[in-house]
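Write out this protein's structure.
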Amino acid sequence: MAGRAPGGGTVKWPHDPERRRRMIEALLVWTEELDREEPLPEGVDPASAGEAPDLASTVAVLEALRADVGLQGKAFQRLADRVEAEEEPGPDPDRLRAEGRRDTVGRLLEARDRLARLLDAGCDVEPLVAAGPFGAARRREAFAGLLEGMRLALRATDEALGDLDCREIRVKGLMFDPSRMRAVERAEANEGKPGTVVEVLRAGWLLGDEVLRPAEVRAVPEVTK
């Protein structure tokens, strides 16, 4: 003989009378427990236990809870970001000084380049300034004073660069060194020894032991076998 178990499924009755009696008693106890009133979950108001649930109110409560959780999450993220920012070390003073010096030297080098080009151009046109029959001596004197002022300004700029431990890389006549130079033009073989620099097209500069700007040169190619 078979019967239905309380939780579903099929159960076979045992042949032993004593076992059948114990199973019947257990079944009676289980049916009696079905009529007992279950205790309310913790946090539920007993006064509202018999009321039918209001779906609209429940959804509204859940939406308010979701919004509150979102606001709390954003507030927590802002707090975490602030703590992380406060824990980050401040800028290194030595690094800031080094960057400031590099910036200052870079600006001085740009000004020096412009001044040197003006001085070279002025020297090239100096013979033409004094040409002509009238006032040649006065024009020559005035232009000479202008050129001398440029030379003084260039000298002062070089002194300021030296105070910042910045110095020009002397490369003319030396063997080409790719760590300090950049070959931008090829010289003829009869202009010098193979691999030597015959002309500096743009001066290179050192900042301490660091190559701030490589020298742009014209060099004689090395002989390849």
